[in-house]
Amino acid sequence: MATVMNMHTPRPKAAIPFILPASRWDEAHAATLTPAELLLYRSNLLGSDLTVTNFGGGNTSAKLTETDPLTGDSVLVLWVKGSGGDIGSMNLGGFATLYQDKLLGLETHYSGPDDDDKMVGYLPHCTFNLNGRAASIDTPLHSLLPFAHVDHVHPDAIIALAASSGGEAATREIWGGSIGWLPWKRPGYTLGVLLRDTVRANPHLKGVMLAGHGIICWADTAKDCYDHTISLIADAARYLNTKMADKPAFGGEIVPPNPERAKIAADLMPRLRGLMKGNRRKVGHYCDDAETLEFVGSANFERLALMGTSCPDHFLRTKIAPLTLDLTALTDDAKLAEELESYRKAYAHYYDACKRANSPAMRDANPVVVLVPGVGRITFATDKTTARLAGEFYGNAINVMRGAEAIGDYIALDEQEAFDIEYWLLEEAKLQRMPAPKPMVGKIALVTGGAGGIGAATAARLLSEGACVMLADRDTAVVEDVRTGIAAQFGKDVVRAVTCDVTDEAAVEAAFAACAREFGGLDILVANAGIASSAPIEATTMALWNKNYDVLSTGYFLTAKHAWGLLKRMKAQGGTSMVFIGSKNAVAAASGASAYASAKAAANHLARCLALEGAPEGIRVNIVNPDAVIKGSRIWDGDWRKERAANNKVDPGEALEAHYRERSMLKRDVLPADIAEAAYWLASDLSAKSTGNMINVDAGNAQAFVR
Ligand SMILES: NC(=O)c1ccc[n+]([C@@H]2O[C@H](COP(=O)([O-])OP(=O)(O)OC[C@H]3O[C@@H](n4cnc5c(N)ncnc54)[C@H](O)[C@@H]3O)[C@@H](O)[C@H]2O)c1
Ligand SMILES: [Zn+2]
């Protein structure tokens, strides 16, 4: 593992404190809710508060009296969060409902810890009212406790206690014996039994800390349970803040935040991504928040990072340990490759050392979390949301380590325990049930002119198959509007926008750097930004001529040139694709539009030159030639429409659209989505054996037939 550069004497900056949760309970609202809705209300309040639990973490339950649909009898039913749900965003359908008496009866099938997995299989047999929602793996923690309302959450401040050598003493000190302590035990039926027995033997308990994991607590009403959970977390946070006050975290800062860190990340991420091995590409996520910079720049960074994370939630998302890098690896590709290779070897070693006879095959050995002193945290996963969440979970882990070290020594999850969770057969079954990813998942595209008709349609087409897209356009307001619209459809994580005039080399460079920093690199360039103009030769001014050449030739050249370095990095992972949006007029002569048509022809020929030059680099370059895409195109909003209408001696309204439709061989309108479909095909692996080609999408125009 790399050593930290630029060391200097630790600087005494005070540690970042924990944020105290506050009650958000609205009694007037709560008064209108049914018992099940109250459980949902409580769950959503808890789960959507990041000071209370991490994303998707924790589970809640209530034992409610229901009418049995078959017998009409009143029965006690356990409502508990369904498997894989998120209490912050779930709705009532996200709860599993199970007969409480049947759940209690399951104990006859249990003879010891080896039965844990078997017990999970019995849960569906307890289903109440044909509810198909699979119950959480933590269901026994809820069913075996004799309390009406139970919360189990993983707040950073609580895990900090749970993962510290000083945690048990601190628990006694804070709560004076009303909160119990159970040593680490993997979630499952055995943990439920241990918990039940502890509470039976200590009837005064109001909750139990689960070492290395989180807390479980209870109350008689939904509101009391909510208040109880919030106040326990606040107690822990307050206690840790007192212990951390006026002391620097992690032994103090030895590497200050690098002012160039955003640039360094933009440079490093594509290089790392290109060196990842495996059959799927990865998307990156970069974060330089204060907590991360405090940790990666600290004296104790290497020691703690190597220990790995503690809470199973953290560790499942982030892998056993991060890859730590120093600045020398950042500029040396061979060194970077070595670092990645040694990480993969260490992972394979962990797998071999811990595997059991029936363990599933080793999964991806690449690091998920990469930490760089002064720079921050980079995470990689097969899609953007997973990469972002992995980063956020590592942020949680940092908070845990900060708190844990303030009251003792941080304790990471034992390696064999970690392995048994990571390669748990039930976890493997969950992975096997996941649908196959869409074909573009893991791919990153930049679309110039992304605010326009064809650009936005192409972006949407790529996104619909799972790609991440950076929209680049000179029109800031419109590109931001388009981004918002696309984000509403495909999610905020997968689309970004950057203002970029493709005629400005510095802006083009900055756009690719932004793409690299936001997503980790580039697999697809759609060069599309364009304008249209029309004028007879004698009326074509130098300014008009230059404008066409600046945008349509130089603009395509600059985007291709600055995409090149990023695209080349993906050669070993199956190569990349550039798609030029050309024009019918690039192949067919146009009367009264010589500047536009000849500039488009130059760009098309540039594409073919680049196809030749790109082949050894795994870069394919192809062209789509649209014609008369009137609906949805902003080119056709302006003077071009009037000029073309005048040139064709028709009215600029529907008559013009009819004119082009009738002029086409197939007598059909050509829409932005039609161009997008061809661009998608050329961008995707469907066209893996094509380069230097053109596809005309023009409803048929004999003049444009390629010879
Ligand atoms: N619409 C058609 O009939 C047609 C026909 C043939 C070719 N094309 C080509 O298709 C491409 C897209 O056209 P569209 O119909 O979607 O038009 P559009 O006007 O809707 O989109 C073009 C986008 O490019 C942007 N742009 C223009 N100059 C730029 C610059 N210097 N830097 C960055 N962005 C810039 C604009 O702001 C706009 O958002 C163009 O290259 C165009 O030449 C279109
Ligand atoms: Zn848990």
Describe this structure in words.
Mean pLDDT is about 95; it is low at about 1-5. This protein folds into 3 domains: about 30-245, L-fuculose-1-phosphate Aldolase; about 260-435, L-fuculose-1-phosphate Aldolase (3-Layer(aba) Sandwich); about 445-630 and about 670-700, NAD(P)-binding Rossmann-like Domain (Rossmann fold, 3-Layer(aba) Sandwich), CATH 3.40.50. The protein has a 7-stranded mixed β-sheet, with helices on both faces. It has a 7-stranded parallel β-sheet with strand order 14-13-12-15-16-17-18, sandwiched between helices. With about 700 residues, the chain is an alpha/beta fold. It is built from 27 helices and 18 strands. The structure holds nicotinamide-adenine-dinucleotide and zinc ion. Nicotinamide-adenine-dinucleotide binds near residues 449, 502 and 626.
